[in-house]
């Protein structure tokens, strides 16, 4: 079976790349074609154009061919349909549903975070794709409630974030040391800076580590450089590009301050003291505070996708 996997892949974000790895590992009988912002591998194709510049590159022709040849389209994990940061994200992922509809390919939403929404356009894009979907699983209860308000045509299964399954497989020594770990994002604000400063001053730390989970992003590098200068003292920067690297830095932490979902997630699983900095009320980081982090729920989401794709 050939499936097209759609997500925020190819931008150098560790969390999104971990999600991609989960689908490849969990569904080995599927011949995956990955839709990527920067395709490099043979099984990767470009995103569909959302502007004139990308349209004129004509890379989308190969992508449309992948749509035509595939058996199904899978939106794989993450919070694709939310306009907390930008409504353009919702529009981009809606665009990717258009050729699926044109070529009459079934759409499956797997382990998705849905909402919150601040614009009618963002909500409309999400509703449109949800109503087209043949199967839907979401990663938290808030997403389930939002999805149920947007569509009545498909049963929605509550699952959990599949990266949990990858973390559980890792053998990590989680003995706590006197280490503070700070995990910002490319657009972290003064809110994160203040929490980081206050936490750094709250006790005498042996080490303070700043973790960059998107190290190739210039905006993130600029922010972490500014943060380190603000904190002063012996603060070290660690650019991480794999899940195992991330876990090795979080494992010894006594406390973690994170504005990234997949930075806070392993810290919670390891039983660390975690300060989660949300961007907007009700966003995915807020949802993580209430989420059920269960491998059994992941299996429910996996079983739904297998059944919907006709896998045995």
Descriptive report:
The protein is an alpha/beta fold. It has 2 domains: 178 residues, Rossmann fold (3-Layer(aba) Sandwich); 124 residues, Glycogen Phosphorylase B (Rossmann fold, 3-Layer(aba) Sandwich). Helices cover 44% and strands 21% of the residues. It is built from 14 helices and 12 strands. Helix 4 runs parallel beside helix 6. The mean pLDDT is 95.
Beta strand %: 15-25%
Low-pLDDT windows of residues: none
Question: What about the largest sheet?
Answer: 7 strands, parallel
Between the first and last Cα atoms, what is the distance in angstroms?
A: 12 Å
CATH architecture of the largest domain: 3-Layer(aba) Sandwich
Name the helix and strand elements from N-terminus to C-terminus, one letter apiece: EHEEHHEHHEHEHEHEHEHEHEHEHH
Within CATH, the superfamily of the largest domain carries the name Glycogen Phosphorylase B
Give the helix proportion (percent range).
40-55%
Helix-strand layout with pairing:
Blueprint: E1 2-9, H1 14-26, E2 31-36, E3 44-46, H2 52-56, H3 60-69, E4 72-81, H4 87-95, H5 98-102, E5 107-114, H6 120-132, E6 135-138, H7 141-150, E7 156-158, H8 163-169, E8 179-183, H9 190-201, E9 207-212, H10 218-231, E10 235-239, H11 243-250, E11 255-258, H12 261-269, E12 273-276, H13 284-290, H14 295-309
Parallel strand pairs: 1-2, 1-4, 2-3, 4-5, 5-6, 6-7, 8-9, 8-11, 9-10, 11-12
Helix pairs in contact: 4-6
